[in-house]
TrEMBL record:
Topology in membrane: Multi-pass membrane protein
Principal subcellular localisation of the protein: membrane
Keyword Nucleotide-binding (UniProt): no
Species per Swiss-Prot/TrEMBL record: Gloeophyllum trabeum (strain ATCC 11539 / FP-39264 / Madison 617) (Brown rot fungus)
GO cellular component assignments: membrane
Protein's cellular compartments: Membrane
Family statement drawn from the similarity comment of this UniProt entry: Belongs to the major facilitator superfamily. Monocarboxylate porter (TC 2.A.1.13) family.
One MF term in the entry's GO annotations: transmembrane transporter activity
Listed name of the protein: MFS general substrate transporter
Amino acid sequence: MPDFINLRTLKPPSVETVTLAARQPLPASTSTITISEDQEAGGSESGSTDGNGTVLAPIDNGFGAWSFLVAAFFVEAIVWGFPNSFGVFLASYLNDPRYALQKDSSSLLPLVGTLSSGIMYCSGPVIHTLTGRRPYFRRPLLWFGTFLCWASLFGASYATKVNQLVVLQGVLYAVGGSFLYHPCISYMSEWFVARRGLANGVMFAGTGAGGLLLPLILPPLLNKFGASSTLRILSIAILCMLVPLLPFVKGRLPESRVHGPNSRATERTWMKNKVFWIVLIANTIQGFAYFIPIIWLPTFATELHINSTESSLAIALLNGGSVCGRVAMGVLSDRLDPWLLGSFTLLSTSLATFVLWGVLSRNLAGLLAYGLAYGGLAGGWSSLWTGFVRPIAKDDPTLSTYIFGLLMLSRGLGNIVSTPISTSLSQGYPTDAMNGQTGFGVAGGRFEKMIIYVGTCFVGAAVVALAGWGMEKSRPRRT
């Protein structure tokens, strides 16, 4: 090898050589895309490139981001609207002798709704672990989930046994819904960075939108066609709405070259972060109370001698209020301290529960006022998750998605245990209560313990959130 290079004898490479080199594939070790969120935020308007020179769509802007968000909103509305409206089906099943006269029907039929939503909440960590390591599984899961949602409801329309409804309408639908819902959360981390709170709020608002419309649509269908035919109509409608949406539910990064990096979600060092545990505790306490009014407001309305149409309106207003609350809290979480926002929503929800439900809900007007206030205040809590998770996950979208799954798991536990807790609280109620004079006294005080429990849980969650705010304020700021 010569000791020196004569620069005068060097010739530039030919055009053919450069072109040939550009066409050569990169080594496998360089195929993982490693653009950080900070890098991407700087090029959100004009887009950026991955490690292979591919031009990526812009983040927080552009047709790709907004079309994904609109599609994810409707997917969430479709997937979650059914479990949130199961009380309408439950009333139909309990009035149908085919199901009501079967053994243990009174305890098994309510389990259908609990399972359908509880499994979707609790499956988050499992699915996010799978798709975090194998991102290319997300697209097949979306299509498979669509098929399962259709097949579960279509099959349930032919069910003649209560346990068949539990398996089909409860478990199988929840599995399909999980395959549809959780990839949307993962994709959102790719499309939105600076506006992730807004995106989170809009996507979660789909839950309220579905819960707003279905309680108004289902009663006429059930009255005219019955539960079996309504399930067939609903299954076909779900299939026809989801299939055109799925092409827009896709990632920003090319999945063929994303190989699931070993992120901090795998290393678990983030679990030593005290802020994470405070968020998880506050979220769990909130979840233990959040679902109880959703479950019991129709029964409360019945005790006030309100007909089924008007009682459905209370649930519709609750879900409608949650649409506004989730979008508003999502937007605010991009600009304000999520701990203060969370403390405000939790304390306000507690106050609304004690005053509007406990004192003023002695007629339809008071009940509707509480449903609207509760949906707007309590429903906005989940939109704050992005603000809580951002300082923990830093620029790691995989870790951010995984922590979202854990928060959903803790909320799912609250969803599952809400029914036995609230059922126990509704029993053994005092007989000397002021019947009808306040919400506490409705049905001889049947709901008094329940109202006190819900309000106290929200106060407890607010105290934990305030402790988290104090811890964040006491931390030294990095310069």
